[in-house]
Amino acid sequence: MKISFIRYFFRQALTNVSDNRAAHLLGIGTIAIAFLIFNSFILVYININYWADEMGKSLTMTIYFKGQPEEIEVEELKSELINIQGVTINKFVSKEEAIKLLAKELGDKEGFLKGLNENPLPASLEIIFLKADREDPLPYTIKKKLEKMDIVDEVHYSEDWATKIEAIMGAIKLIGSVLGGLLFLATLFIITNTIKLTVFARENEIEILRLVGATNVFIKAPFLIEGSIQGLLGGLLALIILLAGYVTVMIRADFKIGFASLDIVFISPHMAVFLLFISTIIGLLGSSIALGRFFKA
To answer: Does pTM surpass 0.90?
Structure first.
């Protein structure tokens, strides 16, 4: 195909978009909303997957004590644990240190703690399994043994969190698949009907082009480019809105589980390009479906 034809197709498509900007702006806005919802689910999935990977790099176990344990009891427990291959003692947090940490985390709201008659936070000991993997039975054996000790109130193992996260990820995958399919159909419907309106508006022009011998490809090409532009701009607008929301949330919010801060990551450049490609393809497909009713193959 000659370069001059390609230029003509793009120029004609941009002219059509400009002449029918109200319909196209409505279509782009609706597409942006659809992709914003879909991209938000992808962002949530990416972060949950990221947190699961981070947890898997160093499996930890936190031992919560009943009341304030004696120093000798804590040291005996440390000695017993450190003799287990692959186990490293991370830190011991007394009840007093725990309440100070909580007050620091509360910041200006630490006044809520002044009304407490006694310190409700437990002392804790955190250990790390350096070489453990998720199939290793050793941490679970240690957990059961610790839970039977008189001085131990509760034991939390990070693998338990990872298992819960995996269940959440499975639910998000299912919801994302259903939602993605619905948004795909909705976006196709929007673009198809937008292109139909422009085709109806230019029906006489199309008929004249046919009479002078223009091929179907020559007539259809600008409309296909229109749909692609509509899908691309809708997808781009969705990403821009999502990025603005992400930056706002990162500035104003601090995500934590207990005392551990959670890093929130944004969609990678490669994923962003892929999402723009998908939105463009959906726009192209929607135009093709709309034109199929007016042109013979």
So the answer is: no
